[in-house]
Structure formats: C-alpha cells, structure tokens
Amino acid sequence: MKVLFINHFPLTGSGSGVYTANLAKGLVRMGNETMIVFPENRAKYEQYEKIKLYPVFFKNEEVIEGVEQLGMNIPCFTTHPRSTFNFRDMKEEQRKEYDERFFKVISKAIAEFKPDVVHAQHIWTLAGITAKCCKEKNIPMIVTCHGTDIMGILDERKRGDNWGNDWAREAVEYASSIVTISKDSNELLKSVLPVAKEKTKWIRNGVDMSVFSKDDNIKKANVLESLGIDKGYDKVVSFVGKLTDFKGVDVLIKAASMYEKDNNNVVTIIAGDGELREKLKEQAKKLGLKNIKFVGNKPQEKLKEIYNIADCSCVPSRREPFGLVAIEAMACGAPVVATNEGGLPDFVTEDVGRLVDVEDAKGLAETITKILKGEITFNRTAISEKMRRLYSQDALMEEFIKLYNQAIKQRKIS
After folding, report:
1. How far apart are CA 253 and CA 163, in angstroms?
2. Were 320 and a residue from 24, 342, 362, 412 both cysteine, which residue would form a disulfide, CB within 3.0 to 4.6 Å?
C-alpha cells in the first residue's frame, strides 16, 4: 500500500509532526510505501529511512539556497518551537500564497507518488486543499483531528472569519473517516462540526517504542551534565512541550516554588521552546527559583534520557487534546502528574500517575512532593510495559491499515 501524509507542521516539535512520522515509520516497517508533505524552515531536517519527504520551505532566520521559500514563517494554531506566527495573523496575500503553493505541491506529490490513500493531519486548510486534489483524481482520503485544529476553527468563528472553516468543511465532507486522538476530542469535534458525526473514529495515539523505552543504563549524572546542569541533584521533575499558554508551564513553576521548599535538591527540567520562554524564565526569577532549568528543544533520543532520569514528568495543561508526551514519559518508566483535562484522563490512571485539577498549583506541588518523598510509589517497569502493550505504534498499525482499506473500497464503490 502507498500512503501519502500531509501535515501542517514540521515532523519534530509538535504532536502532529511526531504522530505523522511515527505512522509513516510504522507502515514502512510493515512493508508499505510512504511519502510526507510538510512545511520546513531549515535546510537540514530529519530524515527517515525509506520514507519519501516533500518539504515546502518557509522563511525564518535561515536563507535556504537553491529553493523557493514562502515569504513568511510557518503559521501555527498557537505556537511552534520554530515559529510563533499564527494563522490568525496571516494577511490575505499570505493566505493566497499558502493555498496556491500547497495546492501545487500536493497535486505534484499525488501525480508522482500515486498513493492508494491520502492521510491528512488537522481539519484545516491543508486537509481541505488535499480533499480538493484527491477529488480530482478520485483518491480516498482520511483526516486526523488533533484538537488544536478545533481551537483554530472556534477562534475563526469568534472573529467572523471563514478561511480555515471553509477548508475544514471541504475536508470533512470528502473524507471517508475522521480519526480522533481521544474521547474528549471525539465529542468536541462532533459538537463543533456536526457533519463529521457519522465519520469519526477514535484510535489511540501511539509511540515509537524503538525510541522511547526504559533504560537502566542511563545515568542521571551523565544526563544532567549533557544538559549543562553542573549540580548533582537528588530528584528530577521534567516537563516536555511547547512553551505556550495552554500548556500551563506557569502553573508548574508556581508549584516548583512550593515543592522546592521541601527539597532544595530537586531540579525541574523544562525541555521545549515557544513564545513564553522569556516570560516563564522571568517568572521563575521573580519567585527566587534556582533549580528551574530551561534546556530548549531536544531530539527524541535526549528526551528519552530526560524521561528515564525523571522521578516524575508533568503535563500541567489547561487544554490537552491528547498528551503524547505523557505516553512517551511513561514508556520510559516515569510516572506522570497531569491535569484532569482533555485526553489525559483516558490513560493517566493511578497505577501510572496522578491527575490534578487545572490551574491547581498547590495540588500539583503536593502530589509531586509525595512522589519525591516516596509517599506515593510506582513500579517503573510495570508502567513502561503497560505503555508498550497499549500504546506501541506498531500495535496500533492494524487499525489504520483497516481504515485505509475501507477508504479505498468505499471510494471505488462511489
């Protein structure tokens, strides 16, 4: 089978990017062919064995020789580690340039790759453009709703805008199926886009277990040193994700000001980047915190090391459609303290972590303190094995292949 993927964001630095790359890698391991169309703003980007990559280049700080770059950075729903340019800030001429370039590239990718099925990510502009391209060639398409697309749709409606909404409707109307990544996203999508009601299918998010796994050979001192942290801390709390408002990092920093009082030998590692980085660093400084370490974006291999040395990993989100980083952390054996929000309650159960209320810095601090003190304990091996059993990307591939085959059969009949 040949599957063409379309994503709104680069393949690293966002949940949908990792999701897309993981699906493509899983399909290749099973003997299928894949291609990915995606935006990029760097000349050197990640390569994947046997996966054809078709980047569309955008202008950031780097001038990329020999290619035509769109005259803007990659637009986002909220923020991306390599872009804070928002869809809502796009001017009419930028929207036109964006639409025209991707229509040309997606059409060319379909003509060259000749996919059996196309899998678009996010119910938004590119999914709509993809639907238009697929309709011309009678190629089946499915689309995955990642949650931030719903945020974009609702934001546009508040502003009386129709650009993304119009493309979203085109995508939903043409798609054979719409995959949602959590029960919460499934219900939200059906309420926001009732036309999707009969097409939705919830498929659990998966993690590449060849990357994320428990590894007893990873040593805390070595990892801290590699991150530029020269003090030997006894305890480690981690956060991985975009530094944007809905991720709730400011709540974790407030919590750190409480749990550091009980143990001044605990380090809080914040891995990620985004528009709020300087503001969050200033918040930590005002609170007099000395053990908060902002280490920036890190590749998956380094994130694996951070998760492995973490006594707990935190997901303090105000809104979280799924929470892939929580699965990654638990695949490495780290218990997770997360908010009782969105898709997180689907899998953060008491044998693998704890849930706290949104905005509850005190509750977050108290829970983390109990874990650090050993008042709440977990079997790290059991956590890792449970994630491997339920959330391995390869274990979920059969569901996607079945969905692709259904889409192909449905399109042939129609």
Report:
1. 37
2. 342
d(CA 305, CA 259): 23
Residues 6+ apart with CB under 8 A from 400: 23, 26, 27, 203
Residue 212 lies in a domain: no
From CA 392, how far away is CA 143, in angstroms rounded? 21
Dist. CA 361–CA 399, nearest whole Å: 38
User: What is the C-alpha to C-alpha distance for residues 100 and 81, in angstroms, rounded to an integer?
Assistant: 25
| 46 domain-assigned | yes
Torsion sign across C-alpha atoms 146, 389, 242, 20: negative
- Say yes or no: 193 and 245 in one domain: no
Which DSSP category does 39 fall into?
E
pLDDT string in tens for the chain (414-residue length): 999 999 999 998 888 998 999 999 999 999 999 999 999 999 999 999 999 999 999 999 888 988 999 999 999 998 888 898 999 999 999 999 999 999 999 999 999 999 999 999 999 999 999 999 999 999 999 999 998 999 999 999 999 999 999 999 999 999 999 999 888 888 889 999 998 888 999 888 888 888 999 999 999 999 999 999 988 899 999 999 989 899 999 999 999 999 998 888 999 999 998 889 999 999 999 999 989 999 998 999 999 999 999 999 999 999 887 788 999 999 999 999 999 988 899 899 999 999 999 999 999 999 999 999 999 999 999 999 999 998 888 878 989 999 999 999 987 765
Quote the CA–CA distance of 315 and 328 in Å, as a whole number.
12
pTM: 0.84
Reduced DSSP (H G I as helix, E B as strand, rest coil) percent helix, strand, coil of the chain, to 5: 45, 15, 35
The CATH number covering residue 313 comes to 3.40.50.2000
What does DSSP assign to residue 202?
E
Are 233 and 340 members of one domain?
Answer: yes
Pairing between β-strand 266-271 and β-strand 235-240 as defined by DSSP bridges = parallel
Q: How many domains does the chain have?
A: 2
Q: Are residues 230 and 185 in the same domain?
A: no
- CA distances from residue 100 to 61, 95, 149, 307 in whole angstroms, order as listed: 23, 8, 20, 41
Give the DSSP H or E segment for 269: strand 266-271
The domain in which residue 251 lies consists of 220-391
